[in-house]
Design a protein that fits this description.
The chain has helices spanning about 5-15, 20-35, 50-55, 65-75, 80-85, 90-95, 100-110, 115-130, 130-150, 155-180, 185-200, 205-220, 225-240, 245-260, 265-280, 295-310, 315-325, 330-350, 350-365, 370-385, 390-415. It has about 425 residues and is an all-alpha fold. It starts with 6 loop residues before the first helix and ends in an 8-residue tail after the last helix.
């Protein structure tokens, strides 16, 4: 018999309403609990889709097994008795307090489609854990949930637009996640597919967002001229569509990054100024569901990288520190990238002690993120520190970085993506 229980309300409030997203977070919690309790068997506990479906409709008589309850309590911050007990008004009210209530209201305001909630859930998991943990779930959701609705003859045009928009955004997400674990062949294929899907949308915003991602990937793979061209293509596409300041800012920032690497300092500074001017307008314009978030912290991070490439070290340090100060703590991977940039700037300024301090913070904060992108940057940073090996603090940090690199290789090896198209 189905009954009203608290569990569905709590997972929705914590942006886990999609099974694939919940699974990623549950697996992470299981590993944490196994380490905390000293019981390796807890790391293998999982929740099947059929069990999840029953919980979401309240089709449960008693409590789940004790190990499952232990992990759920760690993950959701509620006792199993409350999660699977009656959703009384006072219990519901408690579930809607604090951050959980904010998240639930945010999802409720989206209101367009379950796909939009799924996009937000996948974004959150990716930021905290890295693309390797989430890629398969995104691809599975695309293939089994989104794809069947793309060409449905029963959906209204508005629903079709939402389905295609979600397909574009999630395919672009899959591209970045594939790149995050070193599969640029898959990433390139996903980006091309996302751009083709975007042609089906009336709104040009989604396509411009894909071009921003493609420009960013071109920068990562040292295709600098292509990165500048892609950013300009995105800006040209936006010029004939709705005003989207945050996306304009991101595209200008990508152009600035490319121009800085091409040593075109004046044009790079001009592009950074355009990015700042565009972002200043973002608060007055509603955000689009088809645009990846880009805020002041993100712009400061991109500006720091561009200024470092231009040799403007004092300005680069200010932007790197500003990016970290503005960055939300939940953006674990972005924080780690920002710390890498700041450490590189400090080393370039010969501030070795300060760079070591940032390096230690980086190793502590970034150890849970499985990202080949981050791993590659850490390897490069390690090589930069090696020039100061004669300093005792640097030798100690290098030893810790070497141990962390070995741990990362093991984690990344366990998350290798399958060969062939996805």
């Amino acid at each position: 018999m189905r009954r009203s229980i608290l569990f569905p309300k709590v997972v929705e409030a914590r942006r886990m309403r999609v099974y694939e997203t919940f699974t990623v977070q549950f697996e992470r919690a299981a590993k944490e609990v196994a380490r905390l309790d000293g019981d390796a068997t807890l790391a293998s506990v999982y929740v099947s889709r059929s069990t999840w479906d029953r919980w979401m409709v309240g089709d449960i008589k008693g409590l789940p097994r004790r190990p499952t309850c232990r992990i759920l309590e760690h993950l959701l911050g509620e006792t199993a008795e409350r999660l699977f007990g009656p959703a009384l008004p006072d219990v519901h009210q408690r579930a809607e307090t604090g951050a959980a209530a904010s998240a639930e209201r945010s999802l409720g305001n989206l209101g367009l489609s379950p796909h939009v909630a799924a996009m937000e859930s996948f974004r959150l998991a990716d930021r905290q854990l890295g693309g390797g943990h989430v890629y398969r779930s995104v691809v599975h959701y695309l293939n089994t949930v989104v794809a069947p609705g793309l060409f449905s003859t029963t959906d209204q045009r508005e629903n079709g637009e939402v389905a295609f928009g979600a397909a574009v955004v999630l395919t672009e997400m899959a591209a970045w996640m594939a790149h995050d674990v070193g599969r640029d062949d898959l990433a390139s294929g996903h980006f091309d597919r996302a751009l083709r899907l975007a042609q089906s949308l009336v709104d040009v915003t989604a396509g411009a967002n894909v071009l921003a991602g493609m420009s960013h990937l071109a920068l990562q793979t040292e295709q600098v001229t292509a990165a500048a061209d892609l950013a300009r293509s995105g800006l040209a596409r936006l010029a004939v569509g709705p005003r989207v300041p945050a996306l304009s800012a991101r595209l200008h920032a990508m152009e600035a990054r490319a121009l800085a690497q091409l040593n075109e300092g004046r044009d790079a500074q001009r592009a950074l100024d355009s990015a700042r001017n565009a972002l200043a307008l973002a608060r007055s314009v509603p955000t689009s569901h088809w645009v990846a978030p880009f805020d002041e912290a993100a712009l400061a991070s991109e500006a720091a990288s561009a200024l470092l490439d231009l040799g403007a070290l004092d300005a680069a340090a200010q932007e790197a520190e500003r990016a970290l100060a503005l960055r939300d703590a939940s953006r674990v991977r972005s924080m780690a990238f920002g710390q890498v940039t700041l450490a590189r700037v400090l080393l370039a300024q010969e501030q070795v002690d300060a760079a070591c301090k940032v390096g230690v913070e980086l190793l502590t904060a970034g150890q849970s993120v499985t990202s080949l992108r981050l791993s590659s940057q850490l390897d490069s940073l390690q090589a930069e520190f090696d020039r100061y090996r004669q300093v005792p603090e640097v030798r100690d940090l290098l030893s810790r970085m070497a141990a962390a690199a070995q741990h990362r290789r093991l984690l990344l090896g366990s998350l290798a993506l399958p060969e062939g198209p996805q």
